[in-house]
Amino acid sequence: MKKAKSSSVRSTLPEQSHGRPLSERFAEGAALRKQCPRSRQGTWQPVKERVNPIDLLIENNTGRVESLVPIRFGRMLANPFAFYRGSAAVMASDLFSTPSSGLRVVACGDCHLMNFGGFASMERRLVFDINDFDEVSVAPWEWDVKRLAASFMVASRQNGFSEKEGRDAAWWAARSYRTRMFRYADTSILDAFYEFIDLKKLVDAGTDEEMRRLGRKRIRKATETATHQSDFLKLATLAGKTPRIKDDPPLVYHDQDMQSDDAFSEVAHKVVQSYRSNLPPERRLLLDRFRLTDVAVKVVGVGSVGTYCGIALFISGNGDPLFLQFKEARNSVLEPYAGSSPFKTHGERVVFGQRLMQASSDVFLGWAKGVSGRHFYVRQLRDAKVKPLVEVMKPLNMVNYAKACGWALARAHKRSGDAVVLSGYMGKSDAFENAIAAFSVAYADQNERDYEELIKAVRSGRIEARIETA
């Protein structure tokens, strides 16, 4: 299989086959097992010409702010799981060489367990869903499932679990994905489309009373606090009559050159202008109730470190604060292997993916063009977000969380793919989850080898890693 060139091969959105009879579509999926048996989904063997992972990471840093790149490597250096979170480009290259049924969906692209969580919907209910779409693109559906399941194996090892316990978590992620997809195949199209995962019910269904209490406490904290008001107290200060974002270098700071031809403040203001113009009229009216008072750089995540990311503070005439986060949208790591995005800008690609795959997206979600050809997407900084506490999970908690993530991924994939065809391919036995679990173990081993390569590169001075201090 030849590597797709994103400059010449453009993806198209998945064709919708739902108008055909169910039996015909299920048989179509089952027939795909002949060209790609489910057992082959469990194989991982690096190709002879496999690109060095450090070369891929260095290439992925092209266009990033050079002064911030060492922070990215420093975060990835923490442990193999941190490396996994930051190496989506490496795994995308590897997944391209793995067997595929040929079915494509709108895929998350960076589908690991830390990119799921709880947040408030527009209806102000807490939902559980995927929450990161920087790498979203049209690609084989298996790539998301494999990256998700392998992340449970990697995280389980990081928590000190046994190999069996880690494999069980990966297995249950795939099992949940398959069984939920079967349920969607037997559900009306509109009912399946409208479904959301209620975070409170998900927490209450847990079997660990200690984790249930912790989950309920975190939900109360997220919902009882006026989020933007609490963010204002943490992130802003009054400078005279004008509120300003507090400096907290090196992760939050003002008016830095970002080592480019364009001052960050100029970039940020142009992003806000472009974002406003691209909002739907009804959302633009809401935004216009606030006025922009300040912008600042904000370094975030692992994979996003070094890209143009920041926060903007808006204030209404009533004194209500609004924090918006804008993040640079770059080429998806999937595009060199699955074809380039069908959208004109990467901001549009991210916004489309998020609106399609999430049950309910942020009311302020939008996209923008910046200066020097950069693309951006914009969303609220925080909105009652509840992140997973993977570090404190026991093996049983990890399995329950794997089930939730598998469910959320199936719910997201069936919005662009055909649940009936996908179910036809996966079948009713446990062959699919057995294969994905086997892949997860093998790829977790590969991830550890790649992590050792990062350590060697830092020791040799090939790359610089900056360890952040509290």
TrEMBL record:
Region feature (Disordered): 1-24
Chain intervals with Polar residues compositional bias: 1-15
Protein name per Swiss-Prot or TrEMBL: DUF2252 domain-containing protein
Species: Chlorobium phaeobacteroides (strain DSM 266 / SMG 266 / 2430)
